[in-house]
Amino acid sequence: MDDRIHQHASVLVDWSARITAGDNVVVNVAEGAHNLAVAVADVLGERGASLVMTYNSAEVSRAYLRGHETDFEPAPAHERALYDAADSVLILGGDRNTTATADVSGDTKQAAAQANKQIREARMSTDWVSTVHPTRALAQQAGMSYTQYQDFVYDAILRDWETLAEEMERLKRCLDDGSELRVVSDNGETDLTMSIEHRTAVNSAASVAYDSHNLPSGEVFTAPVETTVSGTVQFDVPMVIRDTRIRDAELTFEDGTVVDYDATAGVETLAQILNTDPGARRLGEVGIGMNRGIDQITNKILFDEKMGDTVHFAVGRAYDACLPANESGNESAVHVDLITDIGSGAQIEIDDEIIQRNGRFKWDPEFDPSGV
Amino acid sequence: MDDRIHQHASVLVDWSARITAGDNVVVNVAEGAHNLAVAVADVLGERGASLVMTYNSAEVSRAYLRGHETDFEPAPAHERALYDAADSVLILGGDRNTTATADVSGDTKQAAAQANKQIREARMSTDWVSTVHPTRALAQQAGMSYTQYQDFVYDAILRDWETLAEEMERLKRCLDDGSELRVVSDNGETDLTMSIEHRTAVNSAASVAYDSHNLPSGEVFTAPVETTVSGTVQFDVPMVIRDTRIRDAELTFEDGTVVDYDATAGVETLAQILNTDPGARRLGEVGIGMNRGIDQITNKILFDEKMGDTVHFAVGRAYDACLPANESGNESAVHVDLITDIGSGAQIEIDDEIIQRNGRFKWDPEFDPSGV
Q1: pLDDT tens digit sequence for A16-54
Q2: In terms of CB atoms within 10 Å, which end of chain A has fewer, N or C?
Q3: Chain B residues within an 8 Å CB radius of A63
Q4: Burial (0-12, 13-18, 19+ Cβ within 10 Å), A107
């Protein structure tokens, strides 16, 4: 077995989920994640944790959902009991076919997701971590060979997380202490400002110890004060959203609301998203990608939004973790991330101080605030 | 997908496990049983049951067991909670390598099995059914091509269970009403008698409605009064027991105890079994195979002991279900089945009446009590 699979398992169990002797762990295995499951079981055995392994097969789900004719039971007692008594849940993704449920109706999927809410919440109230094992289907979705995709995934996952967490902590402090955030590009396509006063940034360091539940992670994000967003942003990183490629999306904000939008591809999908509800025209999140192991888009948001040298803005729902205790942030049924490359000819400013220029933070030796 | 997989799923869910709307079902999927899991999910969806699917991978178990260094937790709370709240457990066997745990020490396996006792009991207190999906590894163990093995498995499983259950009920009544059972072969190799007075036979009709938990099943078995077994039996059906081929084993009983034994192959293993404890030298079970879909040995006891035209005797532990309420039967740490072909030149007698001759029961049109 590829030694990187073992390393992945160790990072997941030790750094991300912080599992120790006696922990009751549920490991959720996708169809294509068998080899990672074996490596994870090895580490869990070494740590003296107890293990229940569940099988998360898209083909099984498709069959069950298509067969089902009546209402879905909201919280089956046995499933609820399993997660209520679990300390940690490790979700090992790894599709064998990313479109395996394409012929299940949207209504059925929505009804099942709705019914599954309590179970999802029970799972989310454990120390859960979601990761992914590289499969051929995911390589295909990323437009890569299998070997190329494996290299990509392990570059993203096998980081020096401790050092990265420290660097991200610096950025978090800048955001927490700052009042106004501005992202601006030299070519004039992007110039967006927003208040981030009294908001708390999340250092998403791929560990439950940082309230971060994705492996890989590597982003610092916060919620803007949604009524203060003003200016224009161009998303020059192409993405596939709702099965549609969106290219060069551009949003213009006035008083926090999108007043103009465009794209060179996928503009109908963009419109559909923005018209979901009033909150869908306001920003819920601004995140700065800091995982330099991720250097290209692979059409999987788990990776895309953490790409180094990028900033992403999400229209829609804000995360509670970023908000003051008694305040509710932007509300919406959607949360859609769009990404801008800021690796060259762009900068991030906080209260008029340049904190990143051409992808280099002010604490980097290569930082040059006047560089081109 | 082979339509027989769908038929298998329907038999399992409807005939064997009797699952209805609202049931909380755990489906335990072996590495090689994915396709059966998909078909079972389809039927469970149709019935409106709720589903948790667990992954039973021998390679995962091997990794976990080899990694583990301390004592095993006897009953992890999350696993216990899952089974306590389950109505049914469907165990879908299907190894990809029947020797996948060959390099786990016997001590470790035994310690894990010992710790797992409460979980096993919680599972056994549901309406559980164990079945198997044909895999290449199981075909290999049976010495068959994959296609040949698939045909074999579905011949065994896709029976007219209702009709077979009625026929087996007739045999059960003969055994329940009888006092003395004799199995005798024309060639004189086998002539064994035993009391079955006050013992209750089990009609193992592959359904929880018959307290039968294997699919396929198709045997009627009871427990002899262990001190009354007398005579000799030759087991002419070769079997692999404890990784050793045993051929032409022969046991001679006096006053219920084996006083002489032999075999043309595997005699050391036979000795090892018989010397486990005093109960290992007495009979715990006599069973009559009635599944005519099973016509050869495949080195998997789930199938072997149900083969039509055979009788099997198990040395060791007796099943409680066969015993009078306040009586405990033969006690032993082992329960090892050995099989004799009685399809020709042999008969079964109850209280001196021939109830089967040359594989035909007294109610069969072809029954000929004096046939050769």
Answers
A1: 999 999 999 999 999 999 999 999 999 999 999 999 999
A2: C
A3: 38-39, 41-42, 45
A4: exposed
